[in-house]
Design goal:
Layout lengths: L3 E4 L6 E2 L1 H14 L7 H5 L6 H8 L10 H14 L11 E2 L3 H10 L4 E8 H11 L8 E4 L10 H10 L6 E5 L2 H10 L2 E5 L16 E2 L2 H11 L1
Parallel strand pairs: 1-4, 1-6, 4-5, 6-7, 7-8
Antiparallel strand pairs: 2-3
Helix pairs in contact: 1-4, 3-4
């Protein structure tokens, strides 16, 4: 039976931490607020821009942050980040990932990207980092779909492909992705080089890969 592979973006296909940290700190500076070290930003990533900004303000969830402060920082981040993710020093594919994607595409396997990053950044980032890879669709966060771990977007991908959702493989790096796979009822492979979002991955047993070659082997086992 045909499988399809859905990839997370940040911390899975691309090391985007430097650019996210740069964009967030630029936004904080415009508001007269102190920035955060890059490693502190690592654990803020994965639940969308609003929750990233809430974490930068010291709150665990956007619903807990003062609305005016959160909105100001959220707007500043969405203004700054599109101008500072480009360039290898800010965002780059993980080693071996472009070649693996080319192999999977050559095999005719359906490929998609599903990210909680704003769609207006997700799409150009994927196009620049992985030119020629036939991802269809590429979905960043858009109003018509709740953010991961809600399963609606991955269910939409399964419907678009005409593949049962249980035949999809979600490749991610965090417990957000793991919870998405659990909610949707699809398979899961995780990458150890990504961002944990401060959650316990051991609650979601799945193969964990340290590099692209291990990911290739895990995908071959499933296929």
């Amino acid at each position: 039976m045909q499988h399809g592979i859905v990839f997370d973006l940040d911390g899975t296909l691309a090391d985007s931490l430097p650019g996210i940290a740069e964009g967030l700190n630029r936004a904080l500076r415009t508001l007269g607020m102190p920035g955060h070290p890059q490693e502190a930003v690592r654990n803020m990533i994965g639940r969308g821009a609003a929750n990233l900004c809430a974490a930068a303000l010291g709150y665990s969830d956007a619903s807990m942050a003062p609305a005016d402060e959160l909105e100001a920082l959220h707007q500043a981040f969405r203004r700054e980040y599109p101008h500072c993710w480009q360039g290898e020093e800010y965002t780059r594919p993980y080693p071996g990932i472009p070649a693996l994607l080319q192999e999977l595409a050559a095999e005719g396997i359906p490929l998609a990207v599903l990210s909680n990053k704003p769609h207006e950044v997700t799409l150009p980032m994927v196009q620049e980092l992985f030119p020629g890879i036939p991802f269809e669709p590429v979905l960043g966060h858009r109003p018509e779909f709740p953010r991961k771990p809600h399963p609606a977007a991955i269910q939409h991908i399964a419907t678009q492909w005409g593949i049962p959702v249980e035949q999809l493989i979600l490749v991610g790096d965090s417990a957000i992705d793991a919870a998405t796979a659990e909610a949707a009822g699809c398979r899961l492979i995780t990458m150890s080089w990504g961002y944990s979002c401060g959650m316990d991955m051991h609650l979601f047993p799945a193969p964990c890969c340290d590099n692209a070659e291990e990911l290739r082997e895990q995908l071959q086992r499933i296929k």
